[in-house]
């Protein structure tokens, strides 16, 4: 994997881990309906957390929840405005750049909050739990890489890509 892609993958994993720590809750999005229960995600579930650690993680999550939700909403709205402006041929390049910068700043603010939550969450773990967490993360990255093997660059050969079989035969 190229260093740039490796760095990007690491940033994505770091950004996603606090989301896993949030667990399931009611709200917007797929799979977030009334049946979803509280938790800290599959990675934290495998760490045999003590009751004190679970309580600390829950308090930490509650501390960050308002900011994360506000950042998520701001990023969504900024991205929505950017897409609408990009679809409008009358939008100037300067306006598009300003909207792009706003959307980028909103995503960066969200990433910073996720990073802070992740770092504070990690501080609550024992060295053994941190080692187990890193092992789980490495296994997950390996599974992702294994799924990506053979896809190569470009659109791939999925449905609707290319001529396919001759319908006359």
Question: Any chance you could write out the topology, listing elements then pairs?
Answer:
Elements: H1 3-22, H2 42-45, H3 51-87, H4 93-123, H5 127-148
Quickly describe the structure.
The chain has helices at 3-22, 42-45, 51-87, 93-123, 127-148.
* Category from helices, strands and their pairing: mainly alpha
- How confident is the prediction overall: mean pLDDT? 76
Overall geometry comes to flat
Work out the oligomeric state of the chains in this entry: single chain
Q: Largest sheet, if any?
A: none
The number of helical segments is 5
* Beta-strand residue fraction: under 5%
Fraction of helical residues? 55-70%
Uncertain ranges: 10-14, 17-39
- The tally of strands reads 0
Give the topology string: H per helix, E per strand: HHHHH
Termini separation comes to: 42 Å
Key phrases:
mainly alpha, 5 helices, flat
Walk me through this protein's architecture.
By secondary structure, the protein is mainly alpha-helical. It has 5 helices and no strands. Helix 3 runs antiparallel to helix 4. The longest helix has 37 residues, at 51-87.
